[in-house]
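Human: Here is a favour to ask of a fellow structure person. Comparing notes only helps if you start from a blank page. I am asking you to supply a protein in sequence and structure-token form. Write it directly below this note and I will take it from there.

Assistant:
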Amino acid sequence: MGPWLLLVPLGCLALLLPPPGAAEFSPSLDSDFTFTLPAGRKECFYQPMRKEASLELEYQVLDGAGLDVDFHLLSPKGETLVFDERKSDGVHTVETEDGDYMFCFDNTFSTISEKVIFFELILDNMGEDGQDEEDWKKYVTGTDLLDMKLEDILESINSVKARLSKSVQIQTLLRAFEARDRNIQESNFDRVNFWSMVNLGVMVVVSAVQVYMLKSLFEDKRKSRT
């Protein structure tokens, strides 16, 4: 088993607990990571989560023979929540409780080929921006006259933020797909060049043999009389 790595994106999440009563915002924390998983190795990561939050994890195998890997997601109690066997990509979302969630990428089934793996974490309802509710109340005045409530503003902001986060996520995934397709194309390019050289060599050898055989047919093998 490979080393156990601690992954805590965007700072120490355990310290990002909101103050009491701050629950209107639904903050989302995104992070992504690309690493090389050697043949016959297993890499595991920990992600601290809070209760009633959401953990979304998406992974892709960008390079390596077969473009596949085993994936495990375990709860803080050690229960297996997700198990993907020999998959090239996957998307999983779980509702979390307090504790450290562990997810592992397993390449022990491969004895030769290493894998390049990309994964992205999206953490929802972690409470990072909840403390801003009181700040909003300071600046919103005359809501009765404008027929607008603070909750409407917060809902609109959450909607815009969610759409922007989704756009960033899609762009990140498109870059990952592009990297994987580029690796496949470069591998195919190398194969085409190799077999083209082999075919060229065979053609040269066959041509030389044919010229020799044709030349031998027209040689006068009769011995001259003296």
The CA atoms of residues 50 and 98 lie 4 Å apart. The beta strands are 4-6, 28-37, 42-49, 54-63, 69-74, 80-87, 89-95, 99-106, 115-124.
